[in-house]
Write a structure and sequence with these properties.
This protein has one helix and five strands, in the order H-E-E-E-E-E. It is α+β, with helices and mostly antiparallel strands. It has a domain of about 35 residues. Strands 3-4-5 form a three-stranded antiparallel β-sheet, with no helix packed on it. Strand 3 and strand 4 form a beta hairpin. The chain is flat. The structure holds zinc ion. Zinc ion (ZN) binds next to loops.
Amino acid sequence: MQKREIYVIESDKLVRTRRFCPRCGPGVFLAEHGDRLTCGRCHYSETKKVTSKPASKEPEKAAQKSKA
Ligand SMILES: [Zn+2]
């Protein structure tokens, strides 16, 4: 029996680092700016998922909209 090594290209890892803009669609990447991702095309902004997030005391009941 010959054991073949099959290399599987996991595209998910690429997506994890480079995300596409949900507005512009595939092809337009989001640029990283600190802890957020922004699109230079439609100015879409998205906050990164912080894993080392401290436990929040108060649950977020109401959505906080910083945009005026
Ligand atoms: Zn965009």
